[in-house]
Q: What sequence folds into this?
């Protein structure tokens, strides 16, 4: 058996290319294994064809839609790969840094060029703490504000998070306790249309 599987490919957001890249990676992994357990019979994958419906790679397969384990020794099921690729398709990000944030509002994007749905906000500071409340046209997103510190903070945004084309995105900093070098990432998906 191989001690370590190759790292999965970086997804591009193009479902067709991503799925092909992941299938290529899975094939390379399977071919690197000495044997595959098929209904308790060892078959060498380099010399035998294995029917997918009958294949059973007991300890080398993981069914995990979000790929959270980041395992370098297990390969995901086809269903997991599709669920992950579908979930990540079309996710883009706006990132930046406010070197010396003071309490107040900072305009981050003026008149977004297309409709979008903000799905997550991520913040981190070099030092100090503060609170970052992300807003669309002055209205706070429906999720919890980010408690900014030197540890990365992530907040899912599930309501009041849709920006129409032409709206502004801002962040209001409050409760500043010598916050320095505040970085932010706003993850979003485009609204079809």
A:
């Amino acid at each position: 058996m191989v001690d370590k599987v190759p790292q999965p490919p970086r997804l591009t957001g193009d479902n067709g290319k991503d799925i092909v890249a992941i299938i290529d990676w899975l094939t390379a992994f399977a071919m690197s294994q000495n044997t595959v357990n098929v209904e308790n019979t060892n078959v060498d994958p380099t010399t035998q064809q294995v029917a997918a419906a009958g294949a059973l790679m007991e300890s080398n397969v993981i069914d995990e839609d979000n790929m959270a384990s980041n395992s370098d020794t297990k390969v995901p099921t086809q269903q997991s790969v599709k669920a992950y690729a579908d979930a990540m398709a079309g996710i883009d990000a706006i990132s930046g840094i406010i070197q010396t944030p003071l309490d107040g509002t900072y305009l981050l994007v003026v008149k977004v060029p297309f409709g979008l749905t903000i799905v997550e906000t991520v913040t981190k500071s070099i030092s100090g703490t503060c609170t970052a409340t992300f807003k669309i046209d002055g209205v706070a997103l429906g999720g919890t504000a980010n408690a900014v510190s030197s540890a990365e903070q992530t907040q899912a945004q599930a309501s009041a998070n849709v920006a129409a084309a032409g709206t502004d995105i801002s962040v209001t900093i409050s409760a500043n306790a010598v916050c320095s070098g505040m970085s932010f990432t706003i993850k979003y998906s485009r609204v079809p249309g």
Q: What stands out?
A: Residues 91-190 form a domain with the Jelly Rolls fold (CATH 2.60.120.230). The chain has two domains: 15-88, 91-190.
